[in-house]
Write a structure and sequence with these properties.
131 residues, alpha/beta, eight-stranded mixed beta sheet, 3 helices, 8 strands
Length: 131
């Protein structure tokens, strides 16, 4: 199934990645079904934010609470690779939950989409809708 993402979400993720450089930025992807309509930046609380990301647990808890109250659902996560490519790294593979959520990896010139499933990461078809 193809997912959609708004052009505003893509612009925001690119802006966050540029502002965080040379550190990794990270955040949450929100929406409904397979439509990503919001990206919420979160603090990267990793011990080595130039090489890893860890979404601030408080941001994740708040997003899940808002979803339970009727807000947008947590559909996935995004983070940047300031000096790497837009493929899941070995660290990404090790930290993945296999929960079927979307992952967007942002580089200086690309955003690639991945499905985090039980078998590991697989390319995720995602088309852009204007917002």
């Amino acid at each position: 199934m193809e997912w959609t993402v708004t052009s505003a979400v893509l612009a925001m993720m690119r802006s966050e990645a540029a502002a965080a450089h040379p550190l990794e930025c990270c955040g949450l992807l929100l929406g409904r079904a397979h439509a990503i309509t919001q990206a919420v930046p979160a603090a990267n609380v990793a011990a080595e934010p130039a090489r890893r990301f860890e979404i601030d647990p408080a941001a994740l808890i708040a997003a899940h609470r808002a979803a339970r109250a009727g807000g947008p659902q947590v559909l996935g996560y995004y983070h940047s690779h300031p000096t790497g490519d837009a493929r899941p790294s070995a660290t990404d593979q090790a930290q993945a939950a296999g929960d079927g959520r979307a992952w967007a990896i942002v580089t200086a010139c690309d955003v690639c989409w991945w499905a985090d499933d039980e078998a590991g990461f697989a390319p995720l078809p995602c088309s852009v809708v204007e917002s």
